[in-house]
Design goal:
The protein has about 290 residues and is mainly alpha-helical. It folds into 2 domains: about 90 residues, DNA polymerase, domain 1 (Orthogonal Bundle); about 170 residues, hpI Integrase, Chain A. About 55% of the residues lie in helices and about 5% in strands. The chain is built from 13 helices and 3 strands; from the N terminus they run αααααααβββαααααα. A 3-stranded antiparallel beta sheet has the order 1-2-3. Helix 5 packs antiparallel against helix 6, helix 6 runs antiparallel to helix 8 and helix 6 packs across helix 10. The longest helix is centred in the N-terminal third of the chain and has 20 residues. The protein is elongated and about 65 Å long. It starts with a helix and ends in a 6-residue tail after the last helix.
Amino acid sequence: MLDLQISDFINYCQVSNFSKKSIKTLSEKLREFNRFISSQPISALSEISYKHLREFVTGSTSVHVKKARVWALHQFFHFLKLNHLIEDNIALSIPYPKIEKTVPQYLTPDEYNQILSYFYQKATSFCGLRNLVLIMLFGFLGLRLKSIILLDIADVDIGAGLALVKEKGGVIRNVVLPKILCEVLKHYIEKLGKLEGPLFLSKRNKRISERTVQDIFRSAANSLGIEKHLHAHLFRHTAATHINIVAGVDICQYVLGHSQRENTYKYTHLNPDEYAVYMKKHPFMDL
């Protein structure tokens, strides 16, 4: 029923520079909405009511799916109103579901050192050395998976101890590399034997993929018997937490590349050492 309108909306999103990920999500959720509306006794766009939108949103038990559906409806009905296909954007009245905050996981220094030791022992081969550099970039600097994958050889200046990192939204920034990481990187680039091209290659001599990195994490977790699910964001939380403990939020914000302080707070956690000192001074601790 809404095939033409949805198609026009997706074209509008592409022209309006929506990200590929956003367009994919919008397409999926609106196809679901189209199937839902087609199952209802509705013959015209004007017959779609707020009640129909609510039923569609609440039709999923996942709070994240509900949130994606609300967002898709907000955007789609805004487009319909812009094109005078409807009078009011009734979707704006649908509230976003509340997502309960979970306590973010991160690796303790001992856990991260255990992982570092594992990759150091495996660094006897080219792929092993590559994996060691990867795990150091993740754990030391908290870089995003996409940013690490997009690194080119020319982006790394060992002499200056800097790396040019491509971030979300087309942002490019310089990141300071720890001395130990520079030494390992220098050895790795020498083994790579190239002056240009992707910094991290797969066994097929192509730029490494997200799936390959995930497989590297999975293999390490299985070998070490680590119960935590190893993934890029876990290392980002780890780096942020450890940097916050020794350097504070300002430095942590810079390393993570956040333009707003509020975004950094999502990744930093209470310093347990400071908390322990405070509790020892608590007036009721001696009772």
